[in-house]
Amino acid sequence: MLAEALEHLVRGIVDSPEDVKVSAKNNRRGETLEVRVHQDDLGRVIGRQGRTARALRTVISALAGSDQVRVDVVDTDRRR
């Protein structure tokens, strides 16, 4: 449910909503949600000084309640 909610929020922010992918992974610390977007939309998802990403993390943490959830915005262009 958290992955679907995060995907819905991110699709509303970006210019290429068809390229948004959110995957959930479980580890010892809890659940990790990885957000992948089109390279041109990466700045929109992160926001100025990380404000948008921080807001997304706050909303997902509130939805998760007492569960530990981590939200990672993944940079898919690793050729730099």
UniProtKB/TrEMBL annotation:
SUPFAM superfamilies, alphabetized: Prokaryotic type KH domain (KH-domain type II)
Recorded GO MF terms: RNA binding
Keyword set, alphabetical order: Cytoplasm, RNA-binding
Gene Ontology CC, one term: cytoplasm
One Pfam family from the record: KH_KhpA-B
Major subcellular location class: cytoplasm
Compartments in which it is found: Cytoplasm
Stored HAMAP family: KhpA (MF_00088)
NCBIfam families referenced in this protein's UniProt entry, alphabetically: PRK02821.1
Annotated function: A probable RNA-binding protein.
Annotated PANTHER family: RNA-BINDING PROTEIN KHPA, UPF0109 PROTEIN SCO5592
Family, as annotated: Belongs to the KhpA RNA-binding protein family.
Name of the protein in question: RNA-binding protein KhpA
